[in-house]
Structure formats: structure tokens, C-alpha cells
Write a structure and sequence with these properties.
Layout: E1 2-10, H1 14-32, E2 35-40, H2 45-51, H3 59-64, E3 68-73, H4 89-99, E4 104-110, H5 123-127, E5 131-137, E6 147-151, E7 157-161, H6 167-182, E8 187-192, H7 198-213, E9 218-223, H8 224-233, E10 240-243, H9 245-257, E11 266-270, E12 276-280, H10 297-310, H11 314-329, H12 347-357
Parallel strand pairs: 1-2, 1-3, 3-12, 5-10, 8-9, 8-10
Antiparallel strand pairs: 4-5, 4-11, 6-7, 11-12
Helix pairs in contact: 1-10, 1-12, 6-7, 8-9, 10-11, 11-12
The structure holds 3-isopropylmalic acid and magnesium ion (MG).
Length: 358
Amino acid sequence: MNYKIALIRGDGIGPEIVHEAVGVLDKVGEKFGHTFTYVDVLLGGCATDAVGKSYPDGTAEVCKSCDAVLLGAVGGPKWGSDKPAEQRPETALLAIRKDLGLYANLRPAALRPALAEACPLKKETAEKGIDLMMVRELTGGVYFGKRDRYDTPDRGVECTDLMAYSEMEIERIGRRAFEMARLRRKKVSSVDKANVLETSRLWRSVMHRLAEEYPDVAYEDVLVDNCAMQLVRDPGQFDVVVTENMFGDILSDEASMITGSIGLLPSASMGDTAPALYEPIHGSAPDIAGQDKANPIATILSVAMMLRYSFQLSAEADAVEQAVDQALADGWRTADIAKPGEDIIGTRRMGQIIRDNI
Ligand code: IPM
Ligand code: MG
């Protein structure tokens, strides 16, 4: 089969890690008899530098002509929050999510066996294992609500960000979570703030309706503050965690940290139609950009998710994941996951080792 993939290399370490992930795809292609062709798409701070805006016209159309999108990372201090919206990389990221209809963001957080010691939690907690799937709503809520900024006569400037959710938006992400749970350990934890927010009360009632449709899946409501606490107290209790956009942004960083390194975790963002978008959950790490120091594993595992979810190539996805686990089991470490005194390898070497393992 031939698959066409849009590559958004982006900013900072983005180009280096995408390069390694593409090398892995090509190796998979060689080994399993597929052809991957690539289309470069300019988006992020690099696009601002090149054409004056972070989300050039036609970006969504080019992506839509592809079977999947791979994104490295976008952002950096050069294009900070003091810049106009159209120049900021984050604007482009939100726009592409919206334009491609990518409402479901899957962020697996699993403690890989070879790295159990990297878990910052108590040993007894880590030993129970961590293997959860964060399902984050990605195109609604306060991220996309109406914003306002105005002067008041006596309180200075005032701003508002509106958080809105419809039953339709909640139901479609909820369904994703229940379906995902059926493929895993059959438990859904729905996270909200129903003791305060009206959007959360609606969220909860829609989730309860869905829970009745999936009687084989265990279901619980968890308040977001409690969830933050449970993630460090006993993360092993979670299987699928489903939540709205901003809660998911915050909790997914927390979930990634307890697995030891943010440099290891992939993500998939999908809608009802192709293409889905795959990216590491970490940022562009401008401090180490261009130095062959970044860990390419999160991007390589994102490619495994692409093979599995967009192309239904599960043997190929397994091969990539096993190649990563093998590299880690053999003791290969980039700087972010090395213990003091351990030998460190660079981005390119790690990519090569994983390719050789396939
Ligand atoms: C993420 C990031 C983005 C988000 C930023 C860069 C806009 O933090 O993907 O989690 O908040 O969604
Ligand atoms: Mg985030």
C-alpha cells in the first residue's frame, strides 16, 4: 500500500525528531512492503518567519489531501504571547485541530518496563504499574470560546474566556472513551468539576447516559482536583480517563510526568474522517534545538500510533513499539532519561538503533 503523510516539522527540536521518525517509517515500509510518501507543510514559528503568519493559507487543504499528519513540535520564545495572534505558533496548532475536526486527543501514559526507575512516585506505587489512556476533548471548551477584553470605569481592564459545551460535543468524545475502554481494561473515569461548573453538569449527565449503553464498561465520575491528586497517589487505578479540553491539557502533563519522561509519550488527535494528526506530547525544547540531544522516542511512538489507528497496520505498529522497548532494554539512553553516570546517546543514534531493531 501507498500512504501519503503530511510532515509538519515545526520549530525547535521538531525537524530533528521528525527526521528520525520518518526514518523509522521508511524502515517499516521496506520491511513490510509499504510505500510512504511525504508532503512538507509549513506551520508554526517557522511559518511566521517565512511568510508572516503561523498558519499559512491552504494548510488545512494540503493536510486533508494526505492520509495522516505527523507533527514534530511548534513554538518558542521568539514567538511569545506578546506577538499578534496570527504570528503565534499556538494559534496555528488550535486552528489545524479545529479545521481538521480533530476533537479526540488520545494521550497514552504508560510506564515502560525498562524505565520503571524513572517514575518519580514511591516504589510501591510504581510497582503496581501505570497504563492509562487520557482521552481529551480537543476542539471545544474554553480554548475555543468567545474571548473579550474591555475597559471598566473602576476596575481597569477586564477579560473573559467563555467555556461552552454542547451535548453533541460531549457525546462524541464520550463514545470514543467507551469504545477505547472496550479495547483495554474496560474502565472509564470521567473527569469534571460538576460541583461548580454548568458545562460539567451537562458533561456528567451525557456520560451517565452513555454508561448505560456500555454496561460492560465500569464507569466513575472523578472531580478534576481529586483526579490530579489520585494521579500521584495511585495512578494504577486508571484505565481510560476522559475529560474536557483544558482539564485534559493539565492532567495529561501530570500523567506524562509520572511515567518518567515527557520525551517518551506520543499522541493522536482524530476526528470522524481522515487525516488524523500524530505528535509527541512534549514541546519544541528550543534550549536544545539543533544539538542532537532530543529524545526522538515520543515521535517514533507517534508513528506507531499512526500505523495502528490511521492505517490499521497493527503488526507494523507492534514492530515499532518493540524496537523502542528493545533499545531501552539494551540500556540506550538519551539525556532526558539517563540516570547520573549513564552513557548518553544523541537523537540520531537513538533513531538508528530503533531502525536497526525493526
Ligand atoms: C498541548 C499544548 C497545547 C495545548 C498548546 C501548545 C496550545 O499544551 O498540546 O497540550 O494547550 O493544547
Ligand atoms: Mg499541554
